[in-house]
Design a protein that fits this description.
heterodimer; A: 384 residues; alpha/beta; 7-stranded mixed sheet; 3-stranded antiparallel sheet; 15 helices; globular; B: 375 residues; 11 strands; 41% helix
Chain lengths: 384, 375
């Protein structure tokens, strides 16, 4: 025992990606095909992803930021418009509004126990220039998009969803990312469905899908694959587009991993429920969301909130240095970043600010062991 | 039309990264950037998601903003002018020199310089360097910034022997599937300017003061966001692929060059076919594409159709002024004329001399058969 206990403890990362033989084979086969530009694998992945969401269209892109940008443009967001966004999110949610020439207007969250956009605050912020409202499903737990959908419909504005965290998550049996005009998904390395860099726009609106498809590849009326397949070389460019393309190796990897996503998320739910059980007796911790919500969440991350925010930084350092446990911070408040404070001074969102100062993100990934989980819980109990 | 052949070494490099489980920009991206910068004798290389992203960031980094004008060739892919517009600026279309050199004409550029002109975006089209000396002179005369679009010109040199992408304030490269150095989607900014490199590196990842890799290594607890940035990141598998393919790049381009020499020899005396650029340009070029000029647009249409019937795929570029989204730009007659009668014949690293002979023979045969007399 002595020898084992004195040996340095293994490092537990905040997230870890497991790539299987199947994944590697799918990518190897793609690389050997010599066709890397978006083509049949991208189409197959889009078809499968749309089916998994039970929605009509999926458009794979280079990142969730790109998907958000295209979603805002598709909703008609432009110069002079306002987009209501959460501040308790990754900054891309707000930045994409600025790309479109619009102004992000920050809404507060419900509270540290429910860190998703507050519908009442959104309603209060809607003004004559509001063009869209963006809900972000923090950690894979649903924001009140059902209520927001009604509110937006009544006010004649678009609801968009930042579903970066929430593939496979549902609300009332309906997939998150399908409540609004469009949903933006992320396939960044640490996400539940990861491919390095990648994203996707999901929509039931044929016009939005066509717009996103066009603009992700410079609004060219024909792509490389069409031309490879014998379409004419002539093309037009009817609008301002971008290079927001994904490529075939990443699409092949995503398609392979999508087949395991349901199992991966199921495992995340088991681990999350177990975390919640083990953490409930540790004083000074608030575990956001409810036990019931776990079953319909994608359980992307495991956030905890400290009753004493002043301990946030010290706790994270202690976990890393004394216990070899990596944590993260989801998220600093967007409105408090230098770039946003300079543009929008005087924004005050007390609940968001409290959450940003209280949050510690614990390690969670689908192949995490119970032993490692126990170590995280024990370390937290010791430090608190 | 172009096929990419990846070696087992390339495939192993890509898969090795996937197996490692670390896909976000990290040590391989750093290695790719350092090797790339060293290869061209430049201080900084910043890997990004595409050449469009590289152009956007390079233009942003040199301060291109709303109300500015940037001179761009009218004969180019739409990414260049799009990147200018992504910065809120207006692209101003420059004519090509002429049938012997399809790159932008420094004299026409000089005529188009106005009070709002801030920069020249010089595209080294098909892998042939622009007249960089003339453009440098024009830039210094008018206080303009030179940005090089090297999407098609990796390792090409100008008449003074300098690598394209190392002369202007920044050079922007593409690693799109069809390019000489292909990873699927990807790009790179090359610059000697520390401030441009810093800005580009910051803006490619949301202007965050620390990245996932640093936080993974325990170097930072949190981060600030100091500007409005983007997600223009590449990832580790693509960086690893770029790194292994970089080792074969010279050999691939030498092969492309030998194919171009052969095309030129085979098509030299074909009536109704002329070939832009000279033999010395071929030696300095890096041969993304091989262009010929026909007498007129109907002849090209006939050649395209008949080659297509033989299973030979060709391509050509529209003049930017012909695109719906650029209709408000004044006509550029020289561009429109050359756009209408140029044609790119098949060219790729894995093509053989036999493939070239086959295409050249077909072109010769089709051109020898006169078109049905009109009317």
């Amino acid at each position: 025992m002595g020898a084992i206990e004195t040996s340095p403890e293994r490092f537990i990362p905040v997230f870890d990606l497991e790539v299987t033989r199947e994944d590697l084979d799918a990518v190897a086969e793609t690389l050997r095909s010599g066709w890397l530009t978006m083509g049949p694998r991208t189409i197959a992945f889009e078809t499968e992803f749309a089916r998994s969401l039970d929605c009509s269209y999926a458009v794979a892109v280079s990142s969730c930021t790109a998907a958000l940008h295209l979603a805002y443009l598709a909703a008609g967001v432009g110069p002079g418009d306002e987009v209501i966004v959460p501040s308790y999110t990754m900054a891309a949610t707000a930045a994409a509004a600025l790309y479109a020439g619009a102004t992000p207007v920050f809404a507060d969250i419900v509270g540290v126990d429910q860190p998703v956009i507050d519908v009442a605050h959104v309603e209060a912020l809607i003004g004559p220039r509001t063009r869209a409202v963006v809900a972000m499903h923090f950690g894979g737990y649903a924001a009140a998009v059902d209520e927001l959908a009604d509110l937006c419909a009544a006010r004649g504005i678009s609801l968009l969803e930042d579903a970066a965290h929430s593939p496979m998550a549902t609300l009332g049996g309906r997939h998150l990312g399908t409540f609004g005009l469009a949903g933006a998904f992320s396939f960044f390395s640490n996400k539940v469905l990861a491919a390095g860099e990648g994203g996707l726009l999901a929509t039931d609106d044929a016009r939005v899908a066509a717009f996103a498809r066009s603009r992700r590849s410079h609004a060219m009326t024909r792509g490389s694959w069409d031309r490879h397949e014998g379409a004419s070389e002539d093309y037009d460019v009817p609008g301002l587009g971008f290079n927001y393309r994904i490529d075939e190796p990443r699409a092949a990897l995503l398609l392979s991993r999508l087949r395991r996503l349901e199992n991966d998320v199921a495992r995340r739910r088991v681990l999350t429920s177990r975390y919640r059980r083990l953490l409930q007796d540790i004083p000074g911790l608030i575990v956001p969301f409810t036990d019931e919500m776990v079953a319909t969440s994608s359980c992307y991350v495991m956030p905890v909130m400290l009753a004493e925010p002043s301990r946030q930084s010290a706790l994270r350092i202690a976990l890393r240095e004394q216990h070899q446990i990596q944590t993260s911070l989801f998220y600093p408040a967007v409105h408090e970043f230098t770039a946003y404070r300079a543009r929008y001074p005087g924004v005050s969102l007390p609940k968001t600010e409290l959450a940003a100062r209280s949050e510690v993100t614990l390690p969670l990934y689908s192949h995490m062991t119970e032993d490692d989980q126990d170590r995280v819980v024990a370390a937290l109990a010791e430090e608190l | 039309m172009t096929d990419l052949q990846l070696s087992e070494e390339d495939i192993d490099a890509y898969l090795g990264v996937l197996e490692s489980g670390w896909l976000t920009m990290g040590p391989r991206t750093r290695a790719f950037e350092e090797t790339f910068a060293e290869r061209f004798g430049v201080r900084h290389a910043v890997a990004v998601s595409s050449c469009t992203a590289a152009l956007h960031l390079a233009l942003r980094a040199v301060g291109i903003d709303e109300g500015d004008e940037v001179l761009v060739p009218a004969m180019t892919f739409v990414a260049g002018p799009a990147a200018v517009r992504h910065c809120g600026a207006r692209p101003v279309m420059v004519e090509p020199i002429g049938p012997g050199d399809l790159n932008l004409d420094p004299d026409d550029a000089a005529r188009l310089v106005g009070p709002r002109t801030r920069a020249i975006l010089a595209t080294h089209w098909l892998g042939y360097a622009c007249d960089l000396e003339a453009l440098e002179e024009l830039c210094s005369e008018h206080g303009l910034i030179l940005i090089e679009d090297c999407a098609q010109s990796i390792t090409a040199r100008d008449s003074a022997g300098r690598f394209t992408g190392t002369v202007g304030a920044a050079g922007c490269f593409s690693f799109f599937s069809k390019k000489q150095l292909a990873v699927g989607e990807g790009g790179m900014i090359l610059t000697d300017d520390d401030a441009i490199a810093d800005t580009a590196a910051s803006l490619r990842s949301h202007a965050m003061t620390s990245m996932t890799w640093d936080r993974h290594r325990g170097h930072a607890e949190t981060y600030d966001i100091v500007d409005i940035g983007f997600n223009f990141r590449i990832d580790e598998p693509r960086a690893a692929l770029g790194l292994t393919r970089l080792r074969r790049l010279d050999a691939d381009i030498a092969h492309r060059r030998s194919l171009v020499r052969r095309y030129r020899e085979r098509l030299r005396d074909v009536s109704g076919v002329s070939i832009p650029w000279g033999d010395e340009d071929v030696e300095r070029g890096s041969h993304f594409g091989f262009a010929i000029l026909l007498d007129d647009e109907p002849t090209r249409a006939r050649l395209v159709r008949e080659l297509d019937a033989d299973g030979i795929q060709t391509t050509h570029y529209p003049s930017l002024t012909a695109l719906t989204d650029y209709r408000d730009h004044p006509s550029r007659p020289r561009t429109e004329e050359l756009a209408g009668r140029h044609l790119l014949l098949p060219l790729a690293s894995n093509y053989s001399e036999r493939d070239v002979d086959l295409v050249a023979t077909e072109v010769k045969r089709i051109m020898a058969t006169s078109a049905a007399p009109a009317g």
